[in-house]
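Known limitations

Files may contain more than one protein. Parsers should not assume a single record per file. Below, a two-record file is shown to illustrate correct handling: read the sequence, read the token line, then continue until end of file.
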Amino acid sequence: MSVEERIRDQVSGHEIVLYMKGTPEAPQCGFSHRAVQILMACGVDEVFAVNVLDDPEIRQGIKEFSSWPTIPQLYVKGEFVGGSDIMTEMYQSGELQELLGHPKP
């Protein structure tokens, strides 16, 4: 199975997928930590996290798959959302909460 096929399976097989450095319990960079914190603040309790540090093919492949040069990368319902900066902007506006099915009160 090619890297692209593996990524496509991960993205389509899980509602929320976060490609990150480290794990949600132990992020390995500040941007990945921020992404996890934002998801938690949105009430997300289940995320399929992919540690790109464990798999160099995925680390490079996800950048090509999304045409996005940085990690972390968030996918919701098979669609690319963005990195931590976009997640932050969407969270602040309430758009991310709505996308994740946890509207802002």
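...continuing to the second record:
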Amino acid sequence: MAKVLVLYYSRNGATAELARRIADGVEQTEQAQLCLRSVPPVQASYEQPSGTDLPEKGPPYVNKQDLAECDGLIIGSPTRFGSIAAPLKLFLESTGDLWVSGAMVGKPAAAFTSTASLHGGQESTLLGMLLPLLHHGMLITGIPYTEQALSHTEAGGTPYGASRWTGANGDRSLVDTERDLARALGQRVARLAVRLAGERT
């Protein structure tokens, strides 16, 4: 089995909902095993956690061993002024030891995001999340235009990764194209992880 880590930060639940649709795609892939994790808010330190080791709800918090053991990685963050949210960035900045050891080299990776406004920085956030993954030597994948929903979406969804538009009040539900593209991204990374993990064994 190839383990695919879906890792995200979500403050109000929109990014978490998108993560679950991506997780569906992973779970629908033969020989792929889902590992769903989140990151704590910035008030909690990764070296000396304040509060509990587990969130009050949702998946467990990530640790660096989850990254080292995964065969594929899909990371997600809401957009903050066109960029990655601080909690996920903080965690990624703590992974220098994995970079030194080459633990992530050659593994497939992708990204996803959510925004309150339709042109609120989805693509810049996705591209920003991919940069540290490139430094880790990961194999970046997006969503190809062979996915028909990418050509028809009037909401989220980009070739750089899955995305969603929540509306200013965060009350806009996922639409079919956003859901389909999220699931497709999960399947795409999972299939690559299965194939590449087989080559490494």
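Parsers that stop after the first record will miss the second one. For reference, the second record is described as follows. DSSP finds seven helices and seven strands in the chain.
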